[in-house]
Specification:
14 helices; six-stranded parallel beta sheet; 12 strands; alpha/beta; Rossmann fold
Length: 349
């Protein structure tokens, strides 16, 4: 939505191309933003051809993409193209991995040769995809969602540790559960309050994680919430956000936790160190990805910290300066303005 707001900031009418995303379609309809839908339930060549026809029919002055399929469509339409890269896809295996690697080679070639601008949500991501040395590369961090007055529709038991995200391998929620069980056992031996773990998300690992949790002594302290629409309310009620991913761009959950005055423990991956460098007063600690013992140690330490109001206010000031929606919209608008100006008829590029 912020990218569409960036176009609106320039007074440019926007139209979205969706791939079967009914939730986004509802949000666009609520905001009276027109859109077209191309079904992915067809062979890839047919899908791409329909997408190209749809974009050419609209005849836009600027195309903004958010993934490799959208990028291939954009590059094929021969219109000024801004590619936005949010992160790496989850790992694939076998034939699927070979296909994905082939698509990545094609997509990165298109990014270097045809995109007017390539925007990554972190400098680290630009380095990982090999685009950081290109003059048309820009970094625009994610924004945090403004706080809402919504409440969590259930009782949150404390100390509350929250994990937000898809229950898939790359998020390493198996490590999150393992570290939590270590902390829970230690605190039980010490006779102090026992923490609760809230896993908000769906994915292929849910059954496995539920089985592991059910077989532990802490089974009544692990809560599987499924997908939730308003995670900020849960973060405001939490004592700690836990991010254990093997790969990240800029996790929105981390920004929203900082805005909610909720400390964090995070794996040292992707753009997470960039976020924490911009929020020096925010109490978040890092551990090396995959290190369950270190993660457990950081959780134990963070559950005991004090986060005084003065530091909370300082964190919110840094958030507003670097990650507020208004700031991010203006950054996107500036990139779009530059591209639109460079490709205006009669303008040399």
């Amino acid at each position: 939505m912020l990218q569409l707001q960036g176009l609106a900031h320039l007074g440019l009418p926007a139209r979205a191309l969706l791939f079967n995303d009914t939730l986004v379609a509802e949000r666009l309809a609520d905001k009276h933003i027109p859109f077209d839908v191309v079904s992915e339930a067809q062979p890839l060549p047919a899908f791409l051809a329909e997408g190209i026809r749809t974009v050419r029919r609209v005849n836009p002055s600027l195309v903004v993409s958010h993934g490799y399929k959208e990028g291939i469509i954009a590059a094929s339409c021969r219109r000024p193209w801004v590619a936005i890269i949010h992160g790496h896809q989850e790992g694939y295996r076998g034939w699927a991995a070979f296909k994905r690697a082939s698509y990545d080679v094609l997509y990165r070639t298109l990014l270097r040769r045809q995109a007017a601008r390539v925007i990554t949500v972190s400098a680290d991501l630009g380095r990982r995809i090999g685009i950081d040395g290109c003059t048309h590369h820009r970094v625009i961090h994610n924004a945090y969602a403004p706080a809402t007055d919504s409440a969590v529709p259930f009782e949150v038991k404390h100390p509350a540790i929250v994990c937000l995200g898809r229950l898939a391998g790359i998020k390493r929620l198996d490590l999150a559960l393992g570290a939590f069980l270590r902390v829970w056992s230690q605190r039980r031996e010490q006779g102090v309050s026992l923490p609760h773990l809230y896993l908000a998300g769906e994915g292929p690992l849910r059954e496995r994680l539920e089985t592991e949790a059910a077989s532990s002594h802490a089974k009544d302290h692990v809560h599987f919430l499924g997908f939730i629409h308003h995670p900020t309310a849960l973060l405001r009620s939490a004592d700690l956000l836990l991010i254990t991913s093997d790969s990240e761009g800029i996790p929105t959950a981390l920004l929203e936790a900082a805005a909610s005055d909720t400390p964090a423990v995070c794996s040292r991956v992707g753009g997470i160190p960039e976020v924490l460098a911009a929020l020096p007063s925010y109490p978040a600690t890092l551990f090396d990805a995959g290190d369950e013992a270190s993660c457990a140690e950081q959780i134990t330490a963070q559950l005991e910290i004090q986060y005084p109001p003065a530091r909370q206010e300082e964190t919110r000031e840094h958030l507003s300066k670097h990650f507020s929606p208004d700031i991010v919209v203006r950054r996107y608008a500036e990139v779009y303005r530059q591209v639109e100006s460079e490709h205006r008829p009669g303008t040399s590029t």
